[in-house]
């Protein structure tokens, strides 16, 4: 594929949305959602982090997508590199096998989801995740425990349901939480929020089983790696370097 | 002169309660009652304000001092079971007089551990999920299954011991269930591959050995108290417990040392935690927790030395469990811009109250049981 022609003629968000809608026409078990992140393009602006927070209305101490900053080299030859970390949606997820009550499972399309109404909040999945991609919702609020702003208590649309944080007894408070590739958006034919927000358009998303999808084209090259691949988790997030 | 046929001597129980209300319960009982009230206050705070507002655990440190307390009491309970087993096998005559007390402590600490565990769960009201949605691939599910079974077996064992039957099959059943239960608890941590401080096949053996040590220490305190009350039988009563404590200290030393060596030699990501905690492991977990009590045990002969040594072991074993649980989270598995190099954690006052309450719970109900003659072996047509 000629990347220059692609960039010149069409916006990648448009192409990825077309890829997404094409994939949605396939049966669920034939889709393989994956994310490619181009580290050469990432500028470490944290727009994906904040977009994710506003999309999923995550409380303090709960972030689905953080960006690691790392300094490389010694003065005067110093540079910074960034590594955004969503949930890796592992094909072999340690969090699923350790959950004692089957509150977390891997869907046929590869997305690892949490059933909030089942989760007992034991925290074992958080201990088991090698990427630190899971958080426990402790029921905290940015503005304190007495006066809560509307944006903190309004319902999030995660997993296609409405999750209103009325009290600390309302799920997902007390539950484990994680990135789910904005599954509620995907099922409506929309891209994950981080992908559409990225200033540098460094995020590719789509069905990796579709050879025509943009994500397949970018991530099937040799200049890619998977984070902590040695652990055998088989992540579905592929970094392009 | 009175004969009673049930498990509880109701007259003694009523008399003890009456004494307690009249202010004749003893300082330790009132102190422990205050401790339990602190726990009630802590639980109310958690229910009303929620975990997030009153505890210092977080996504970076999901398991704090409440899980530490659970592990500590669970191991003490398992240790009491091992002491009871080996006591009956090797020291039948010497051990007989304290066997009911040791079995009772094993049961009481198992229940206390469950309480500490429940206080840490984010959604404790969903515990029924363990029954309706079991996941056999999870060590935690197996732990809950075995721990529940273990607690039930302990209750049966106590009733059996109390009735003076000392069923051999029940003794063996409790011993075997304890081994499975405590190695399963260790497996929860041991399979966490990315938490280098926990990871490894040595952890189940380590838990069994430090459990034996912790249980020996608590049993030895009870034995020392019994020896103080009956000076003529003092040497005989404390003899098995000196041996158990010595063996426990030796085993714990061996495994703590080898965990340290294995960890220090590791080259995987996160193994710097062993270097980081080297000083506290050597000074607190080895010297103060194992060497000092061993020397005290070796150079003292009476019950006082046994008591002091056991008390140090118990306090320092709690400290070691805290180091172990929190140590697993010190090095984050992923470092983003706002994640510190070393993750800090210190318990909140509510978490501290839970710890005080669990210790108080054991002390209070043990004293209540002892004063109510619940810990005396019942024989049919017994003359009290």
Give a description of the structure.
The complex is a heterodimer of chains A (241) and B (384). Chain A is 24% helix and 18% strand. Chain A has helices spanning 3-9, 12-24, 47-56, 94-98, 124-128, 150-153, 183-186, 193-197, 214-219; strands at residues 33-38, 66-72, 79-85, 104-106, 112-114, 134-136, 176-178, 203-207, 224-225, 237-240. By secondary structure, chain B is mainly α. In chain B, helix 6 crosses helix 10 (202-229). Chains A and B meet through strand 2, helix 4, helix 5 and strand 6 of A and helix 3 and helix 8 of B.
For this entry, give a set of tags.
heterodimer; A: 241 residues; alpha+beta; Alpha-Beta Plaits; four-stranded mixed β-sheet; two-stranded antiparallel ribbon; 9 helices; 24% helix; globular; B: 384 residues; mainly alpha; Formate dehydrogenase/DMSO reductase fold; 15 helices; disordered C terminus
